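Message: Just now I want nothing more than another pair of eyes on a protein record. I am handing you a single protein, as its sequence and its fold in token form. As I understand it, each token names a local backbone shape. Take your time, and here it is.
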Amino acid sequence: MTDSSAKSPVTLVSAPGKVLVVGGYLVLDRVHSGLVVGTDACLYAAVQTQAKAGLTSETSPSSSSTANTTIPIFVQSPQFESAWWKYSFDVESNVLTQNQSADNGTNGFVQVVLQATLGLVSQYKPAKLHQLLASSGSDGSGLKIVLLADNDFYSQRETLEKMGLDLSSASLGKLPRMCGTGTTLKNVHKTGLGSSAAMVTSLVGAILSHFGVVSQSDLDHSKASSEEARRSFRLIHNIAQYTHCLAQGKVGSGFDVSAAVYGSH
């Protein structure tokens, strides 16, 4: 799903969680099959271009303001405490650098995805990156990314207890969507729906779509039968699998990323 406005274009992409019914590591051998179900709970990545005052993404500044080669990037996950990171991406060397974070820590998944996807953008759509560079600066302009998740990805026990509600599905339905967790990303209790895979997939899709590497219309599953849509999904799947494995430091079965891209299968 995408949303945009004339002043501040935004690209929003969602990816579902997963429940494995049959399979696991056996599916790494092609003679075996598995069944994974995509959930209605999703992770969301919103990517926004924030230009300098007086500039738009279609407006180029004077040549004297283009000496800098780095694009500032701000990433925020507002459902968690101390969850924001500041990066810069050098369009000449294609190197991503973390400059600052709320707790002086890192987010390996986000960092790997940014490095890989922006590197891909530099190959497919270099003019788009230089256009963003021309409208970027130290005043907070550049690229802003917000990551959000549906409540089902995290335990809501403490939230329900604080609200004086019983631990039931009916009580869960009374919670606001994407409510705060009241804790850090490191300490949150997950429910096993594959939040990291869904986050990686949504972020890959949002960045590639935002810069036009894949078409926004191709991400509509109702049009997934076209050759161009299949190419877009395949590219997102391959980059998401690669970055998820790289961030984890191991090669898994990949069914969680596969479900985040293709849904139930």
Notes: The longest helix spans residues 227-248. Confidence is low (pLDDT under 50) at residues 1-6, 53-66. Strands lie at 10-22, 35-50, 70-76, 84-90, 95-101, 142-149.
